[in-house]
Amino acid sequence: MIIDTHAHLYAEEFSEDQTEVFTRAVAAGVHYFLLPNINSESIPLMEKLMKEQKNTIPMMGLHPSYVKENWMEELKIIETHLFKNPSKYCAVGEIGMDLFWDKTFIESQKIVFRTQISWAKKLKLPIAIHARDAFDEIFEILDELNDEKLTGVFHCFTGDASQAEKVISYNGFKMGIGGVLTYKKAGLDETLKGVPLEYLILETDAPYLPPTPHRGKRNESSYLLHIAEKLTDVYGVSMTQIEKDSFTFKLISYKNYDPYKWYKEIINGIKV
User: Is the separation of the CB atoms in 225 and 218 below 8 Å?
Assistant: First the structure.
C-alpha cells in the first residue's frame, strides 16, 4: 500500500466525485492520504472529509498564500485547533513562504512561518514547507532556527542542485517529489540524480500539478504511481528493486504501520 503524503482532497475541485477519487486511489494501491491545511476556511472541509474517509490524516497550519491583512486572526484560529488536540495531526503544515505573485506580506509571512516552526518544536511535530520563489528567505530562517527538534519536508520540491544540497544539510528534512518530476523541461530529474533516494518522499499535491500524462487536468491521488514510475527511470532501477532495496519505497509504502508515527518517524530518518 502507498501513502500520498500531500493532497488537498477536501478542495472544491473534488466536490462532485470525491468518493470516486478515493475509490480510484485505493484501486491504484494508494491507501492513506495526508491532508495539509491551508487556512481557517479549509478546516471544516478537512474535518468533514476525515469523518467520511477514515484513511485520511490531517496536518494543521496556515499556508503563506493566505497570510493577508487578517493574518493574526487566522493564525490564532490555527493555533487553537492545533493545540486543542495536537495528537490528531501528523505535522504542522502547510506552512512556509510564497513570493511568486506578491511580496506585499513578505514580513508577515516570515513572522507566521517562524511562529509555526516554534509550535512544531514545542509539539515535536514535523513541518510541511511550501517554498515558492522563496528558498533564500526560508533558508535564512531555517539557518537560524534549525536544531535537533526541527524536522520536516520541503513539499513539492522544485529547486536546483545547490538548493537540494542545502535541504540535505539540515539533516532532519526530506524533499517531497510530485508531478513536476515528470515534466520534460522542469529539470528536476537531473537535480535528483545527485540526491540519495533516502531524502525523497512522494506526493501529488492534488488537485494541483498533475503528472504527465495528465497535465492540464485535475490531479488526484491515483496518479501517484506515475511519479513513482518516473523515479525508477531517474535512478535507473526497477520498481521491484525500489520496493526491495530503497529507503524511498519504504517512505511511500504503508506496511502495517501507524501512519501518524510513520510520517513523524520517516522525517526523523528512522527506517520503517
Answer: no
Neighbours of 61 (CB within 10 A): 30
Are 134 and 98 in contact by the 8 Å Cβ rule? The answer is: yes
pLDDT for 198: 81
Distance CA 27, CA 222 (A): 8
Q: How much is the mean pLDDT over the chain?
A: 89
Give me the residues paired with residue 3 across strands. Answer: 32
Angstrom CA distances, 111 to 67, 74, 133, 265, stand at 10, 13, 17, 27
Measure Cα distances from 150 to 158, 171, 175, 195 in Å: 21, 9, 15, 21
User: Residue 223 is part of which domain span?
Assistant: 2-267
Average pLDDT over residues 116-133: 96
Mean predicted confidence (pLDDT) in 140-147: 97
Q: For residues 234 and 80, give the distance between their C-alpha atoms in angstroms, rounded to a whole number.
A: 43
Strands, E, within 91-214: which ranges?
92-98, 127-132, 152-155, 173-177, 200-202
**Which among 111, 140, 116, 119 is positioned nearest to 129, based on CA atoms?**
116
- 106-134 burial string, b = 16+ CB within 10 Å, else e? eebbbebbebbbebbbeeebbbbbbbbeb
pTM of the model: 0.91
Task: Please determine, for residue 267, whether its predicted confidence score (pLDDT) is greater than 90.
Answer: no
Q: How confident is the model at residue 219 (pLDDT cuts 50, 70, 90)?
A: very high
Q: Residue 183's domain is classified under what CATH number?
A: 3.20.20.140
- Asked if residue 71 is part of any domain, the answer here is yes
